[in-house]
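Wait, can you check?
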Amino acid sequence: MKRLFTFGLLLFCFDRIEAQNLVPNPSFEDTLPNPDWGGSAYIHNVITEWYTPLPGSADYHSLINPICPNCIASQQMPRTGNAFSGFYTFDTAATNNRECVSVKLIDTLEAGKRYRVEFYVSRYEVFKYGCGNVGAYFSPAAIMTSNGITTYTPQIENNASAEPLLNDTGWTKVSGVFVAAGDEAYLNITNFTPDNLSDTTFVGGGISNNVAAYYFIDDVSVLKLEDTIPPMLPISLTPSPNNGTMQLRGTFPAGTRIEFFDMLGQRVRQEDVPDGSTPFDIYAPELAAGMYLYRVVTNTQELTSGKIVIAR
């Protein structure tokens, strides 16, 4: 399929983040006065604020609760504190089977305001699959069932083609910015993409019957942004033609990347761009002589696009 590119420059803002995190118990540390540990310790039975839409059973994991024998069964340690949660994002045994972690925000989001969402995930190594699809959906009312959860469209979603979320020894950040409609009161995190469209990877290993993808989650935040307009530098990629060495200039927000496509629309190179206004040198010796399309994007918008010629 041919790709169409819109040429031009989109203006954007740097953000000053206001202090309050709108997510209560963001690191899953605060437990109920009389937690029901059971055999596996589900979050709605153990910690404050968070719950899991039924029939799901997102789990609580902790280092400091010896009466909960199944609270830690992984090589992964909490990113901060002593606890984190975990949930299924894909399951080969049941179509669109999902577990979701949900919480009521401290305040309803304000219409027209921009919010930065951030959380960290790590793949549970005893499961045989990875899944790059995980996102955050803000709902006006509590979602009480995970049945049909793939019908919701998350406001923030991991870019699975750029980050397949296969790391099982550390934590990977998922983040993004969106403009609130003004009725968002609950935050829900899971894979909202149907199985047939999900970016899954069979990694093997693990336990024989764990033919699914399961992820730990820690340090969830929702922060309101106050826009400030910095001095803007126009985005340019020069020189053209070049021999594979070029320089990208401009003012870039966090999470920017540059993508190159051949004239058939196939992506042939992708590279992360540092945020700020520092010129960024690109060295692409693998690109053959010819014309390429490029675009500079974030997870939520295209900043600019154009053509570049490489001459060997």
